[in-house]
Amino acid sequence: MKKKINKEELQHKIIETITKRKGRIKRKDLWKASKISSEIGTKALMELIKNGKLLQVEEYINGKKTLYLKLPSKELKIISLEPLKGIPCLPCNEYNFCSEMGNLTPITCKKMDEWLEAS
Fold first, then answer.
1. Residues facing residue 1 across a β-bridge
2. Around 68, how many Cα atoms within 13 Å sit in the side-chain half-sphere?
3. Which residue in 56, 63, 62 sits closest to 26, CA to CA?
4. Which domains are delineated in the chain?
5. What proportion of the chain, given as a percentage, has pLDDT over 90?
6. How far apart are CA 40 and CA 31, in angstroms?
7. pLDDT band at 2, cuts 50/70/90?
8. What whole-number distance in Å separates Cα of residue 70 and Cα of residue 61?
9. How confident is the prediction for the chain on average, in pLDDT?
10. Rounded-to-integer distance, Cα 35 and Cα 17, Å
11. Max Cα distance, the chain (Å)
12. What is the DSSP annotation of the chain?
């Protein structure tokens, strides 16, 4: 008698299989590579796609549509550090002693007050 695999285990195995394939696999190759039958794994796969944990991408190769599954890429958002320019905490000699509950706090810091007023 085979052990029944729950949905979370199936999803983990699907993601693990795709990860081992450098984050991308043909959909038709997933089942063989993961050793999961498509009848058992399809529902788990569709839920991963629905929740954005996997992407299904169509590509046309020689006029023939091929479905790929891939892990979503983490897009880096570039933010400006300009607002932090001149912040008194970075070069401060008292930085290691400053805390929200100590005697020296960002709220009572005169250097911070001056910097905020100038900003």
1. none
2. 14
3. 56
4. 7-70 (1.10.10.10), 83-118 (no CATH)
5. 42
6. 10
7. low
8. 17
9. 86
10. 9
11. 74
12. -PPPPPHHHHHHHHHHHHHHTTTEEEHHHHHHHHT--HHHHHHHHHHHHHTTSSEEEEEEETTEEEEEEEPPP-PPPP---GGGTT-TTTT-TTGGG--SSSSS-TTT-HHHHHHHHH-
What would the two tokens of residue 73 be?
A: 């890429």
Give the confidence band of 3 by pLDDT, cuts at 50, 70, 90. Answer: low
Structure tokens at 24: 């991308």
CA 91 from centre of chain: 33
Nearest Cα to Cα of residue 58 among 18, 27, 21: 27
List C-alpha distances in Å: 104 to 2, 6, 32, 95, 110.
Answer: 63, 53, 62, 9, 10
